[in-house]
Amino acid sequence: MSHFKVGGWLGSIAAATLALSCGSPPSADDNPEAPVATTSAIVTANQRIDACKQDPRVKAGLVTARLCAGADIFFRESFAGNGRTCGSCHPASNNFTIDKQFIQTLPANDPLFVFETKAADLGDLENGNLRANGVIKENVDGFDDLANRFSSRGVPHLLSLKITLAPDPGDGLPNPPAQQNGVIE
Known about the structure:
The chain is mainly alpha-helical and about 180 residues long. About 35% of the residues lie in helices and about 5% in strands.
């Protein structure tokens, strides 16, 4: 996922979306075979913020328009990719993570399973471990040998992200990044 400079939304997104469901994830309605819709048109940050200003939770002062826009990006924007959103792997309905039990409840057409229908498009970036074991393929050693040099891991939750990303004053780093993962607010 690309990181955006949308104020402090990254650190607050989990709590706000959990409590307020601003930018709630799309659904397949009554047809479980229909593809799950995501945003495909180019929408600017200002357009998202303007749309969020009409949200009753924003009008009531429960959440800022910027946070609402960040949630909209997180849950609806597919970045002209394979149909997944950030919320595909970090769903609010499952504590912002996925696991084997949760995966078993999803319809076959969920964007999470794009590998199963478009494996050729993804090459060696994914394998069948997602549905079978609830883990994703991570290429920590780069992209030189994707078929053989990878590790499988669970998807981390995003709860208390602002706290867990704060630099540790005891780690001895002379000039740590603004946050431990390098995201600058």
